[in-house]
């Protein structure tokens, strides 16, 4: 449990908020104490979902159903309010640790414990299914361990949230690595899907490993659909039943009743002594900490909380105060040109120097974008240092990783080892991103990522300063469903991980009630895409959505035009690169793209930035420069209020995700729990006359 943030309520209805248990895309989970002194977990739904009347109706319906779940191993819904400003539901708080944290701390569970775990979770799922629900997110983090047995949590609003998520983002509800094949494919699911997920959970519990490995989200989903699970280390006594649970064919999996019967004897014999001693000790320690929580204070709902400030609370308060001060004066102070970028200010004990790292592709395939990010960051540093009212100076340590995994890891190790660098901004390719993160994670140094949108690398230090790739599809779905198409929508996958994720989400979002969708595969690097283009044109498409990146999109666009197709053509951020214009030639004209990168020369409100950039570099800012500028503006706001003389990267990682910043390109704000970008920030471009024309953040009136 962590202390509440300044934005958390002091009360939720009659429950006094004591702390924060977690946060995610759907909402925040708070620890509360009721009038009777009992502890509860309160899930508070995010305002953007609360604003949807259809969601409230679904939420109300699913809470009503969830109240009917009766099992000693399923944590019940005991209170809820679907009509509150922020809808919420409450369940009894279980002080035991989650299964994933337990395995990470004490190691895999013995076979006997896993048999009991399987039997009792199967009983909990039987109650969930009996109430007409499917859990949809059975994973180790949703299994809490208590001395008398496990507790399954987070089933109360699964179906209500599923419809909202699919409609809003085209995403798939659940946790990759534990999803059934039918979930990974975006199909409708039933109780058998929970059985598959339970099999994954039990395999993890007994081996400490995920049966479909680790890695990018796209890879995990692909393996769930196509690969056999890795059950290395699973005892022979458990293996046959787990193999059946993990069958690709849902009809071949056992029912939860069959699982309960198979492991019932072990369950009956275990009693309360079902866990090994180290786990019992872990549960006891956590329970003891909960007993030290303060009682309900004699205040009314809405009264401000009073508590002794911890170091983390002091950091949060300082960052919040800094944000409030900076909000009144704009992103950064404007001053005269001429200060060297990153120059060390004259020695002044009142103005210490704080160093930020920039790791970017400055000489590889994304060098144009990397250089633009760099220049935007340099301008932000120069403007910060030119203002003598700032309590600290900024320096920028710039490192080129050329977009390769090998160089990215080497650069990351150097920046991670440099104690003077308190945070790192990254702007590089997808292969490099996967390689650079481990060194930063190891030392807990915060990373603000400008280019990664795959959500494949979520961890404790990685904060993503742009909307995830799947969210690019939200305005595209709006556009494609605004009216009937003249023919089917052909969705083209170039087989790269980025394209696979884009096209999978597109098919999921448009699968119900949208246009007819035809899936086509045109592998990137195919020597002659003309045959594939002719095949696509033969469908007489109402529109074509290309999911790949610019390297393959250029030849494909030329081949599609040669095949005679002139209808609506759509692409996403992977194509927003001058290289696409070069490769496609005249065939690029007419393509409509979404991108999370703004064009400061056309974006409203960017005039002051354009003027300052042009004065500083003797040329107007290219795309990506505003995002680099905003990244340093965010970090300057995050650092203001902390003690720069004693500042470390561990202080910054505590407050970065809690800092928001109105930048030139977009408003930057993040999920505290996972570092994902929150809010809007997707823009439309149309290629006209061989150039990208900025259309703004609203879908055009017509394709």
TrEMBL record:
The keyword Metal-binding appears for this protein: no
InterPro entries registered for this protein in UniProt: Kinase-like_dom_sf (IPR011009), Leu-bd (IPR028081), Peripla_BP_I (IPR028082), Prot_kinase_dom (IPR000719), Protein_kinase_ATP_BS (IPR017441), Ser/Thr_kinase_AS (IPR008271)
Protein name as it appears in the record: Bifunctional serine/threonine-protein kinase/ABC transporter substrate-binding protein
Top-level lineage group: Bacteria
Alphabetized UniProt keyword annotations: ATP-binding, Kinase, Nucleotide-binding, Signal, Transferase
Family that this chain belongs to: Belongs to the leucine-binding protein family.
Transmembrane segments: none
Signal peptide: none
GO molecular function per UniProt: kinase activity
């Amino acid at each position: 449990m962590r202390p509440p943030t300044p934005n958390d309520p002091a009360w939720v209805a009659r429950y006094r908020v004591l702390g924060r248990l977690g946060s995610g895309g759907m909402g925040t989970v708070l620890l509360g104490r009721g009038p009777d002194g009992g502890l509860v977990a309160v899930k508070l739904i995010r305002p953007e979902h609360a604003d949807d009347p259809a969601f409230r109706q679904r939420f109300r319906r699913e809470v009503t159903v969830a109240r009917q779940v009766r099992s000693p191993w399923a944590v019940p819904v005991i209170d809820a309010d679907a009509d509150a400003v922020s809808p919420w539901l409450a369940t009894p708080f279980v002080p035991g640790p989650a299964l994933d944290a337990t395995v990470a701390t004490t190691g895999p569970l013995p076979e006997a414990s896993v048999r009991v775990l399987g039997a009792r979770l199967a009983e909990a799922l039987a109650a969930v299914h009996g109430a007409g629900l499917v859990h949809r997110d059975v994973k180790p983090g949703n299994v809490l361990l208590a001395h008398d047995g496990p507790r399954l949590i987070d089933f109360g609003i699964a179906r209500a949230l599923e419809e909202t998520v699919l409609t809003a983002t085209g995403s798939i509800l659940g946790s990759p690595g534990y999803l059934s094949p039918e979930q990974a494919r975006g199909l409708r699911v039933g109780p058998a899907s929970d059985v598959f997920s339970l099999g994954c959970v039990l395999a993890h519990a007994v081996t400490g490993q995920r049966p479909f490995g680790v890695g990018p989200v796209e890879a995990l989903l692909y393996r769930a659909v196509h690969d056999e699970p890795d059950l290395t280390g699973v005892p022979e006594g458990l293996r046959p039943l787990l193999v059946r649970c993990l069958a690709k064919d849902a009809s071949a999996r056992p029912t939860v009743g069959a699982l309960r019967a198979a492991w019932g004897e072990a369950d009956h014999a275990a009693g309360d002594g079902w866990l090994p001693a180290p786990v019992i000790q872990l549960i006891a320690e956590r329970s003891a900490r909960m007993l030290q929580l303060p009682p309900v204070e004699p205040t009314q709902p809405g009264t401000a909380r009073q508590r002794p400030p911890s170091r983390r609370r002091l950091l949060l308060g300082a960052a919040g105060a800094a944000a409030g001060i900076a909000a009144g004066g704009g992103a950064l102070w404007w001053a005269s040109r001429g200060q060297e970028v990153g120059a060390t200010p004259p020695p002044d004990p009142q103005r210490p120097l704080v160093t930020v790292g920039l790791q970017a592709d400055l000489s590889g395939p994304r060098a144009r974008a990397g250089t633009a990010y760099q220049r935007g960051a340099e301008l932000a540093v120069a403007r910060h240092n030119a203002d003598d009212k700032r309590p600290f100076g900024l320096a920028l340590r710039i490192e080129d990783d050329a977009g390769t995994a090998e160089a990215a890891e080497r650069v990351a190790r150097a920046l991670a080892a440099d104690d003077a660098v308190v945070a790192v901004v990254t702007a590089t390719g997808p292969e490099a991103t996967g390689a650079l993160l481990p060194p930063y994670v190891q030392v807990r140094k915060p990373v603000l990522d400008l280019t990664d949108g795959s959500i494949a690398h979520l961890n404790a230090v990685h904060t993503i300063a742009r909307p995830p790739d799947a969210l690019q599809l939200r305005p595209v779905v709006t556009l494609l469903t605004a009216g009937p198409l003249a023919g089917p929508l052909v969705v083209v996958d170039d087989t790269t991980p980025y394209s696979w994720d884009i096209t999978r989400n597109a098919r999921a979002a448009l699968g119900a009630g949208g246009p007819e969708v035809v899936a086509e595969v045109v592998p990137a690097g195919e020597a002659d895409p003309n045959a594939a283009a002719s095949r696509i044109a033969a469908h007489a498409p109402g529109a074509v959505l290309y999911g790949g990146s610019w390297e393959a999109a250029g030849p494909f666009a030329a081949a599609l035009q040669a095949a005679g197709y002139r209808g609506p053509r759509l692409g996403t951020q992977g194509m927003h690169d001058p290289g696409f214009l070069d490769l496609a030639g005249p065939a690029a004209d007419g393509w409509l793209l979404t991108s999370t990168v703004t064009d400061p020369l056309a974006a409203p409100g960017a005039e002051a930035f354009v003027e300052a950039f042009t004065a500083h570099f003797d040329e107007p800012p290219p795309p990506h420069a505003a995002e680099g500028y905003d990244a340093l503006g965010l970090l300057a706001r995050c650092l203001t209020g902390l003690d720069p003389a004693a500042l470390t990267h561990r202080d910054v990682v505590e407050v970065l995700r809690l800092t928001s910043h109105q930048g030139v390109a977009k408003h930057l704000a993040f999920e505290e729990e996972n570092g994902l970008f929150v809010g809007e920030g997707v823009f439309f471009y149309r290629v006209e006359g061989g150039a990208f024309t900025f259309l703004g953040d609203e879908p055009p009136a017509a394709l």
